[in-house]
Amino acid sequence: MKYFDVFNGDADGICALHQLRLAEPQPDARLVTGVKRDIRLLQQLSGIRAAHVTVLDISLDTNRDALLSLLQTGCKILYVDHHFAGEIPDSENLTSHIDQSPDICTSLIVDHLLGGKYRTWSVVGAFGDNLHTSAQQAADSLLMDEFSVARLKELGELFNYNGYGLSVSDLFFHPKDLFRAILPYADPLDFIEHSDILSRLRKGYQDDMESALKHEPVRTTEAGRIFEFPPEPWARRISGVFSNLKAQEMPNLAHGLLTRNPDGTYRINIRAPLHNKKGADSLCRHFVTGGGRAAAAGINALPKDQLDLFFMKFDEVFTQV
């Protein structure tokens, strides 16, 4: 029997899988992942039959056709996620744990499934997904001191930072390599203490954020603020954590970040107001390449001639919330 581990290449996807594999090792599993926005990952399993497939932190709705094909070829699939799912297929070959609540992430769902056995890693994943309150609550249940929590927060944010890019060539580390790097560590604090990966990520983060903070909003309305970045690798890498930072600065407002793609379209990050985490997914699903969750979503390639429509929908959605 073949095993496949399919996971989002951000902090949440990596930490969710790590918890599962600490509990149930599968050293021969083929890893399938990519940059954070590369979410149609089940397409890479076309033709696979009668395999065990674990899917983490990618939208079921986006992967529906590939999922149905795998179920029809006899694959046994465990699906754990917190993004928009749509109708969940009724199949004895599918076990799903999907929670679209705005304060949950895949790492926290896995933590619940495992009874909190590796909760420190779920704290890392939740911080990486900008769920600071949920992450802090999980850390509080472990009676962690402030310094340790701060270290887990940095780890989550750096892993999330590493996941953003147009392609893997934009990243400092392939998500597969980050997952393999943490495999020996049941405690993320031990990983932080002994790994040399974080020093490179810290340096990259600091340099990229310095460039990002030079940019002021290009549009400010009652609904929120919108920023724009140039089509550069640093801009693509920092887009997620920059969006999170701006959302934390003004938690009553929504935030958008436009990063120009090389082809002239826009890659867009959306953060709903932290004090009212809804609307980001519905906004982005107005557009062909859009998707995500209520609190945070995005559009992969918005044509320039749809920019005015995007601005109108942004104001419409977030003025209402």
Essential attributes:
Diaminopimelate Epimerase, Chain A, domain 1; 321 residues; alpha/beta; 11 strands; six-stranded mixed β-sheet
Task: Describe what you observe in this structure.
- By secondary structure, the protein is of the alpha/beta class.
- It has 2 domains: 199 residues, inorganic pyrophosphatase (n-terminal core) (Alpha-Beta Complex), CATH 3.90.1640; 102 residues, Diaminopimelate Epimerase, Chain A, domain 1 (Roll), CATH 3.10.310.30.
- Helices cover 42% and strands 17% of the residues.
- It contains 12 helices and 11 strands.
- Strands 6-7-8-9-11-10 form a 6-stranded mixed β-sheet, with helices on both faces. A 5-stranded parallel β-sheet has the order 2-1-3-4-5.
- A hairpin with a 3-residue loop joins strand 10 and strand 11.
- The longest helix is centred in the middle third of the chain and has 17 residues.
- The mean pLDDT is 96.
Structural class: alpha/beta
| Net shape | globular
Specify the number of helices. Answer: 12
Instruction: Return Rg in Å.
Output: 19 Å
CATH architecture of the largest domain: Alpha-Beta Complex
Average pLDDT taken over every residue:
96
Which band does the percent of strand residues land in?
A: 15-25%
Reading side by side through the largest sheet, how are the strands ordered?
6-7-8-9-11-10
Which percent range fits the helix content? 40-55%
Cα separation of the termini: 48 Å
Can you summarize the main beta sheet?
Answer: 6 strands, mixed
Low-confidence stretches: none
Q: What's the total count of β strands?
A: 11
Oligomer kind: single chain
CATH topology annotation of the largest domain? inorganic pyrophosphatase (n-terminal core)
**How are helices and strands ordered from N to C?**
EHEEHEEHHHHHHHEEHEEHEEH
Q: Quick one: CATH class of the largest domain?
A: Alpha Beta
When the domains are counted, the total is 2
